[in-house]
Amino acid sequence: MWSRRSFLVFAGAAPAALAVPAQAFEFKPYDPAAVEKEIASGKPVIVHVRAWWCLQCHAQAAILDSLKTDPAYDGVSFFLVDYDKQKDIVAKLGCPRATLIAYKDGKEAKRMSWDTSREAVLAVLKAAM
User: Fold this and answer.
1) What dotted CATH number matches 22-128?
2) What is the C-alpha to C-alpha distance for residues 43 and 80, in angstroms, rounded to an integer?
């Protein structure tokens, strides 16, 4: 049997237990005008060139997904290039799939392709900060 106090404690704690942490970032589809605007603003920008079938891309995406709730990335804009559907963008960027590109202060700060280690992904993110 529930006492009144037990019920009130449970009712007060339930919303906190069910709360989902807010995401610090999410990837937006790569739109050349939007990306250029963000880069030109001097804000940190990360571009991920990814193919749905690429194992390295999935490994990089899993690391990035694990960081989505980290408030350190609140001010960073993240964009996703579809390697198969945006060949013109891939050619313009001059990169293979499984590539992360960091922009800082309006210019490219770091680029990494194929690496799937957490340290390498974090190094690219830190270069944008």
Assistant:
1) 3.40.30.10
2) 17
